[in-house]
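Hey L., structure's done. Input below.
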Amino acid sequence: MSEAKEWVKERYGAIAAGAQQGCCGAGAACCGNPAAIAAESIGYRAEDLAAVPEGANLGLGCGNPIALAGIVPGETVLDLGSGAGFDAFLAAARVGPSGRVIGVDMTPEMVAQAQANAAKGDYANVEFRLGDIESMPVGDASIDLVISNCVLNLVPDKAKAFAEIARVLKPGGRVAVSDIVLDGPLPESLQGSEEGYCSCISGAVGREEYLAKLAAAGLRQVQVVSEADAATLLASDCCGGGATESELSGVVTSIHVTARRA
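Output:
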């Protein structure tokens, strides 16, 4: 396993176990401070937050992929980097009893937490699997929709991850992701930084590279539906190795992307 994966696995395992709040310590989440940045500010409704089991929302997102997805009853949805299950549970309500949601996460503690939350909420149409996004434990052409929220920036080999997404999608299957891309050079302090990587910053790639890799994987109709400067979301006293909002402004962008398998 790469060093970056070890960083992420250790950090997010600690979050799931409750030993650490978010990536940076007390009160901070990987992609922002939930005390200052409510989930509603990245696209969730109050009803969404009330609909999931307590402990499912860890405040680790940078957008709301569910809002992009157009989920319909009966679909099979795959949530990549499913964490404690927040987006998976929201998707489960939309696919209904005739549909299915699969969450994949490489951190055992996260999978265990998600499974406990599923049992607590009596979700019969959701399952969580331990696995790597670069080599997913999911069958070929078995998925109608892939969602992910502020996770793919953490994957070292994005080309391989996007190829895996294309592999598991049915013909005509869809992608709806929220993620972080770069629109400028990173501050030197973040380059190769463990803190910066786990904070959803230094593992990100340039916007054009990100979109090109999606297309190269065989995905079509790749479209940035919306975007926002992510400097406020990502900057804090400790996240990103101490990078300030002004240093990150114009550099890190939260994008909401859709695509389709031919």
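Strands lie at 76-80, 100-105, 126-130, 143-149, 169-182, 219-229, 252-261. The first helix runs from residue 3 to 17.

-- N.
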